[in-house]
Amino acid sequence: MRIPLRDEPPVPSDPADEYPLELFADTLRASEDFQNWQPETDGIPKAYAPQDIAKAWNVSDEFVRLLFTNEPGVLRFNKTGKSSKKARSYTTIRIPKPVLLRVFKKWQKITRRAK
Which of 11, 107, 111, 115 is the most exposed place for a label (fewest CB within 10 A)? Predict the structure, then answer.
């Protein structure tokens, strides 16, 4: 079992603990865009949306959310609907550039080692 790429159906909700490390490594190893990705070097601090990273690495938005679920430094913004009894809670995340680079380097090492 592997985590879907961008064009595949999304993974079930909240599966971060259900997937072994090797599944993440396999998905990133299969993404040529991840393997060839280079960070922007304009010196401007930026916080990325999961969709931006997913597009750059050619993986699904949900995969990026899973990858950054427990990463320290990720910005989380929680919002509930107008009626708190029935309203669904939403969390928007943004990944600051230093966090993105740290995670990228970590997974780059793991995917190279696991070949």
Answer: 115
From residue 108, alpha-carbon distances to 38, 92, 104 in Å are 12, 26, 6
User: What is the H or E stretch that residue 79 is in?
Assistant: strand 75-80
Q: What is the pTM of this model?
A: 0.63
Encoded amino acid at 103, one letter? V
Q: State the Cα–Cα distance between residues 72 and 80, nearest whole angstrom.
A: 23
64 vs 61: CA distance, rounded Å: 5
The span from the CA of 112 to the CA of 34, in Å, is: 12
Who's near 26: CB < 8 A, 6+ residues apart? 2, 3, 114
Element containing residue 80 per DSSP (H, E): strand 75-80
Task: State both tokens at 31.
Answer: 């993404």
